[in-house]
Amino acid sequence: MAAAPVWSVDPRTGKQREQVAVEATAQEVDDDVRAAHAARGALADRTVRAAFLRTAADLLEGAKEHLVEAADAETALGPVRLTGELARTCYQLRAFADIVDEGEFLGVVINHPDATATPPIPDLRRYKVPLGVVAVYSASNFPFAFSVAGGDTASALAAGCPVVVKAHPDHPGLSELVASVVRRAAAQHDIPDGVLGLVHGFEAGVELVKHPLVSAAGFTGSVRGGRALFDAAAARPAPIPFHGELGSLNPVVITEAAAAERAEAIGTGLAGSMTLGVGQFCVKPGLVLAPAGAAGDRLLKSLTDAVSDTEAGVLLDHRMRDNFVAGVAERAGLPGVDAPVTPGAGGEHTVSAGFLTVSAQKLAAEGEYDLLLEECFGPVTVVARYEDEAEANAVLARLPGNLTATVHLSTEEEAGGGRGAEILAELTPLAGRVVVNAWPTGVAVAPAQQHGGPYPATTSTSTSVGGTAIERWLRPVAYQNAAEALLPAELRDSNPLGLPRRFNGRLER
């Protein structure tokens, strides 16, 4: 039977644009994984792989106009947004190149023998080595930054791990283009094409995570799809790490004092955050705990005005549009749920932003309103009005894990008065990043970044953004009583590579 075609589709019309590939067979997946496995040695030299990452960034920038045009045709995200995302992607590649050059990620620790310790300490030397081939599952909503050359791929290559990417069906043509650019960069450093494989198709994705030569996987997508792959990774004869970003409600708490102090600004800011990118950000605020009363009313008036002025937008594909329209209708149909601005279908191919309001008391106990505590992908949020702190806390206590949790405090609370510190402590168990007096949309590529949280936000405690994302693709190895001549250069006393390390308890740089 002929392999199924892979079509590039215009989300603005729903029409097929062109066939860009065919879905990979099990044999083709096997070929790509084996080619990646064979390419491991080409990444062994840190100098080579850092240069490779920088060249990839340079070539992607050089193809900017063509890549942005291709991305917009398949995602409708717009040239301005996509140009910024490509710049972020290139910055991320260069940041990982710097990390590779610095070498601190290797975690070198050397202990000389100490017969006086109890028990005695032998000669021990520890560092981190690459896991092997990494499977990367592209995201729909970030066709550059969380896709073929995105954070999972960049961090895996930086760790010394070849990658096989499962392309997302919302931007298959772009995926092919980006993969070709990265392979051109590899060729400039005598790295084989197999260092970056690319496959299409649902079944190919399943085959990929089950392949015995795949050593780890990174995923960005839905709870349903990510959990299925996570379970498949765990069910293997030799389970592998699966770092999945699955879903997040990203709750926001607005204190009564903050609403009284700047209701209008908070309302406008919330509107901008929840509608950014047509609400297709994984860190979109999906639940807002706002006070009942006059200050909360002013906040809702500001939110209503700002959301009402938001133009209809195009979602990434028509399946997402259908799910959004059905999801908001089901939520709006619950008793006691109001829609000051009704979200839903904005036209034949577009959606309109809106928000729902409900009493926080209805969310405090298990029941039919649990639907409002589930992520709804698209430009909508739920504002739950609380009468007192106990009611707000009861809702927070029911929430699953999140990528972010946000609190808006008054000037006095931010300075340490009132319950500001207590609220931060209450939000910390819920999320990987706690935001104060700002909005969660926008994830900076920075060493201190944490993009990951308790399940179902992610399936591991790691981050997929920032320098420490590299740690997902490494494992520690210790050598005991090995002669200097046998040791890797990274672990020799003379430190020929000039690496930062901990030597007999002292940090050396």
From TrEMBL:
Instruction: Report the Pfam families cross-referenced here.
Output: Aldedh
What are the boundaries of the signal sequence?
Answer: none
EC number per UniProt: 1.2.1.26
Keywords in alphabetical order:
Oxidoreductase
User: Annotated Gene Ontology MF terms?
Assistant: 2,5-dioxovalerate dehydrogenase (NADP+) activity
User: Boundaries of each Aldehyde dehydrogenase domain copy?
Assistant: 8-453
Q: Which reaction is the catalytic activity of this chain? A: 2,5-dioxopentanoate + NADP(+) + H2O = 2-oxoglutarate + NADPH + 2 H(+); 2,5-dioxopentanoate + NAD(+) + H2O = 2-oxoglutarate + NADH + 2 H(+)
Q: Does the keyword Oxidoreductase apply?
A: yes
Q: What is this protein called?
A: 2,5-dioxovalerate dehydrogenase
Organism lineage reads as: Bacteria, Bacillati, Actinomycetota, Actinomycetes, Kitasatosporales
